[in-house]
Amino acid sequence: MAVQAPGEPSSPPVRTLTRNDGADQASATEENHLIILGIILIIVGLLVESLKILFTIGIILLIVGVVLALLGRSGRAIGGRSHWY
Fold first, then answer.
1. What is the 3-state secondary structure (H, E, C) of 15-78?
2. Is the residue at 31 inside a domain?
3. Does the residue 54 lie in any domain?
4. Contact between residue 59 and residue 39 where contact means Cβ atoms under 8 Å apart
5. pLDDT of 16-59, one tens digit each?
6. Which residue range forms the structural domain that includes residue 39?
7. What span, in angstroms and rounded, lies between the C-alpha atoms of 37 and 31?
8. What is the pTM of this model?
């Protein structure tokens, strides 16, 4: 630690960045919700003939949920973001 001369301005304290595990857990939960909602919509779309659009929306949500889950579990910042919500 360096000795500071009187009258010399002090340097600002150094901040360490820590990873917030709660945010990681929250994003994983949201990704799981997308996957579950996608599966439910696929099943409803298959069961109800007049609601085929739900099948298509379910597949889209399922794919988006899986992609976000894989990106979230990679442990690296992707696209300049460390968390995908």
1. CCCCCCHHHHHHHHHHHHHHHHHHHHHHHHHHHCHHHHHHHHHHHHHHHHHHHHHHHHHCCCCE
2. yes
3. yes
4. no
5. 555 555 555 555 566 688 889 999 999 999 999 888 899 999 99
6. 22-73
7. 10
8. 0.57
